[in-house]
Structure prediction request, 229 residues.
Amino acid sequence: MTVTTEERPGQLTHHKEGRVGYVVFDNQRKFNAVNFDMWMAVPEVIAQFVADPEVRVIVITGAGDRAFISGADISQFDKKRTGSANDDYNKAVDGGYSAVLDCPKPTVAKIRGICMGGGLGLALNCDIRIVADDVKIRMPAARLGLGYQYPGLKRFTEVLGPSNTADLFFQRAHFRRRRRVLHGHGQAGGARGRARCSGDGLRQPDRGKRAADGGGGQACPAGDSQGCR
Prediction:
C-alpha cells in the first residue's frame, strides 16, 4: 500500500537551494507536530549546514501549506514525558532550541498557517521571522497542564515583550493575523484595555471584546500618526 505524504510518520528533512539551507518539519497529518526523533535530528541538521561553506543562511519551515509547526506531538507524552524518559525528552527539546538559537549563521523562520507551542518557541529562536497573512499563533501549555521552562519564557519576553507574552500564555486563545506580535510589536489581539492605536493604522478591540476575526482591529479613523484613544 502506498503511503501518502500526509500519512507518513513525522520526520525532519533538509535540502539546499543555492546558498540557502532548508530545515523542514514534515508531519503534515498532525500539522507538523514535532516528535522525539525530529527534535533529536535538529542539532545534527543545523551542524551540517553550519559546516557547509556554500550555505549562507538557514531557513526553518513546515511542510505543506497548513502549518509551520503545531508544537510537540502530544501522542508521545504518555511514553516520552513520564518518569525517567521525561529527562531525555527535555534534553532533546533543549538541544533543538539551542541549535537554532546558538547557530552562527543567520536563521529565518518561514511561517504560515498554524504556529503553536514549541513551534512558536522555535520561531522566536530564529534571527528573523517572515510571516504569512494566514498565521494562527497560540500557546496551549496551560490547557495541557504543562509548565514552561524559564529559558524559553525569558526568550518570549525578550522578543515579544512581557505584555504579549502574558497574553499568549494566560489566555490560551488563537490569535489570527497578528504578524506584528511575532516581531515584538503591538498587542496579541486578545489584550485587555481601552481601544488604542497599535501604530499600524489598526484600532485594537476594547476591554473584554474578542473580535470575530480572531483579534483583528478596526481601521483607525485618525490614521497611524495621531493614535486612537
In short: The longest strand covers residues 11-17. Residues 186-229 have pLDDT under 50 and may be disordered. Helices lie at 36-51, 77-80, 85-101, 118-124, 150-160, 162-171, 223-226. The two ends are 62 Å apart (CA to CA).
